[in-house]
Amino acid sequence: MKFKSLGLVGVGMVAGVAISLQFSAFAQRTGSPLPLDELRQLADVYGIIKTDYVEPVQDKKLLEDAISGMVSSLDPHSVYLDKEAYRELKENVAGKFVGLGIEVAAEDGYVKIVSPIEDSPAYRAGVKAGDLITRIDSTPIKGMSLDDAIKRMRGEPGTKVTLTIARKGEDKPWVTTLAREEIHVQSVKAKFVEPGYAWVRITQFQEQTVEDMAKKVQDLYAQNPAIKGLVLDLRNDPGGLLPGAIGVSAAFIPKDEPVVSTRGQLADQNQVFYARKEFYVGRSGGDPLAKIPAQLKTVPMVVLVNTGSASASEIVAGALQDYKRAIIMGSQTFGKGSVQTLRPLGPDTAVKLTTARYYTPKNRSIQARGIVPDLMVDETPDGDGLNALRVREVDLDKHLSNVVTPETAKAKRDELEESQLAKAVERARKPIEFGSKDDFQLAQALNHFKGLPVQLSKAEPRPAQPEPDPKAKPDTKPAEIKAPAKK
């Protein structure tokens, strides 16, 4: 008992010093007093674990787990990054990492596939968006944090990992063994799919995306200056860096027009981003869009999207839709309209925190709704079964609601009969090769250019929160900054 008391006193002293040092800074930033009772309770729990738990626990583990739990409880995209996770994040931004090639999110204690990365081990094995990972090797996923699951799937190149995958509509789980490899994400692909009709695909928005796209477009116009239609393919694009989305949008819309705005609690999160060089390359670098052909601003366009299109790809689709610059075709997008800001905690760790919401030029919130296409077109002539299996932002636990109303749309999900779902799964087994002659949605985009009939989907957009007043003016000024409420 004496040992326990001394432990608690020691923890209390540490907490007291920390409170004293941080009180003025915290109060200055938030205008709110520190919750001293709750902090004392946290210190008490810390001390009890240190003295009473069945086996010793390292201080570092306890504190990092406390931070991780505090941040991850906010929403699906806020996360504490330890040394390894921070390094992996920087690798992803650079466009390469070692792993299986999947974008994942937490759902009901498991790990759901948001989107497989093209040409990755997972993609080649037939892993699909909407699949649920239940085991990694022999370890059950249930109750495991998303960070821990990702760490288990990462590793050295050439090493293998076995995934047990549950797929809706199937009775038995699917087990597949994948070899980890360095994933090089090719950000931009481009080609002529028919004489006079160009296809530009962006798989992820990275540091070099704007520059790569500009070069690909210049090459296309060098091959044929008389382009009659351009398809911008953003299907299964999970997003990435905001400057990339701004630069891609700026290539097609008038200069200096708003591309996207953000609104959050802090002043630096209330911003409007314009189709200007400084917003996608900074003030010191050269403008990669300076030499793109002028015809790119007026060429007829179709933007292809699906449920795997998220974040930065939704910003591009929303801007081009608002300015009526392109026809948006495909399926309703993922609906990730929140801003994540990296706050370093030191040289090796950081917090990735949701700090704002994204809004299109016409004040439409993307969060938990996504972009609804102008023309709803299924992925195959027989239906859009694969998209019916995919998880969207509104389906994620603790997702940030659309600012229009606090209600979620989770209870309003589309339902398919089991027989229809089983057929959809069977059709979806072989990955669709985007840009190929068998790409049904691309064929419908070409039909649109040529004035031919387009086979539309019979499905309605998934319900979501109501949109803002359509008469609202474009958001050309930062939103009003309000002080946080005092508690």
TrEMBL record:
PROSITE patterns xref list: PDZ
Name of the protein this chain belongs to: S41 family peptidase
Matches recorded under SMART domains: PDZ, TSPc
NCBIfam families xref list: prc
Biased composition (Basic and acidic residues): 468-480
Pfam families: CtpB_N-like (PF22694), PDZ_6 (PF17820), Peptidase_S41 (PF03572)
Entry similarity comment: Belongs to the peptidase S41A family.
Regions crossing the membrane: none
GO biological process, one term: signal transduction
MF terms (GO), sorted A to Z: endopeptidase activity; serine-type peptidase activity
Organism, scientific name: Zemynaea arenosa
Keywords: Hydrolase, Protease, Serine protease
Region Disordered: start-end pairs: 453-487
Organism classification: Bacteria, Pseudomonadati, Pseudomonadota, Betaproteobacteria, Burkholderiales
Cellular component annotations (GO), alphabetically ordered: outer membrane-bounded periplasmic space
Domain annotation PDZ: ranges: 86-154
